[in-house]
Amino acid sequence: MGPQDQYLLLLLTCLLGPPVRCEEPHHQEEESQGPSPGPGHHHHWSYTDILEWDTDYPDCGGAAQSPINVDTQNTTFDPQLRPIQLSGYDLAPGETLELENNKHTVVLKLPDSLKIVGGLPHIYRAAQLHFHWGSDSSPGSEHMVNGHRFPGEIHVVHYNSEYKSIDKAITQPGGLAVLAAFIEEGPDDNAGYQHLLDHLDEVKEGGNSVEIPGFDIRGLLPQQLDRYFRYNGSLTTPPCFQSVNWTIFNQTLLLSAKQVGSVDNPEYHPDL
């Protein structure tokens, strides 16, 4: 295969949804939802009344509403995009994290020492991560690729470091940056995820929370951070602010059937 053929293959593998841009891979070492990120917002919404969200939350009817179906026929390759670079993600066991069942999903609150330091126009500080596992009527991930919905999706929520808090950033254009990755079933246990899954039984009921030891949060994301799809969108649940810079990684995460089943449990998101 010649250089031109390789470049064409690159373009094909980088294509995805409107208006989605794609990162060119660099040859280097690879290094649910819950409610809208940010405290202080209403939580009386439910996935069962999704068509009525814009009544109480006007932004839910906005032009940049997420999630989207990433259509590989309508994407643009952007050579200016760079690999996502993370800092501070490997937390020591002595540092504790709060794992909470907020009645929508399980949320892991993250210290703002975790940062995105490359691949975006600003430095972004972490706030929390959560999962999406769909519902009985619409199972699986929130985002889709060519109409295909994956078994699950992780969102790691960050806010622009130019603002003092996520509450200040959440309404501002580009105020938030979410790293998203699709979850699929694989043959083996995912060791990185087991650190989190071991504590799920402790937060089965809505409102419960538990302190868990720190671990390598980087292990919850794909190894390849240099191939992704980028678009400007919104929070996927109320209040749906149109303030999110989305990065959706090409590489999926593989969890064993047992691991997928331990999270895809209605006890963790009773309102689905």
How would you sum up this structure in a few lines?
The protein is α+β, with helices and mostly antiparallel strands and 272 residues long.
How does this model look, in words?
The protein has a single domain (3-268), classed as Alpha carbonic anhydrase (Carbonic Anhydrase II). The longest helix is centred in the first third of the chain and has 12 residues, at 3-14. Mean pLDDT is 82; it is low at 1-19, 24-43 and 268-272. By secondary structure, it is an alpha+beta fold. Helices cover 12% and strands 29% of the residues.
Rg (C-alpha, Å):
18 Å
Strand content: 25-35%
Average predicted confidence as pLDDT: 82
CATH class call: Alpha Beta
- Number of helical runs? 5
The CATH topology turns out to be: Carbonic Anhydrase II
Task: Give a quick set of tags describing it.
single chain; 272 residues; alpha+beta; Carbonic Anhydrase II; 3-stranded mixed beta sheet; 5 helices; 16 strands; globular; disordered C terminus
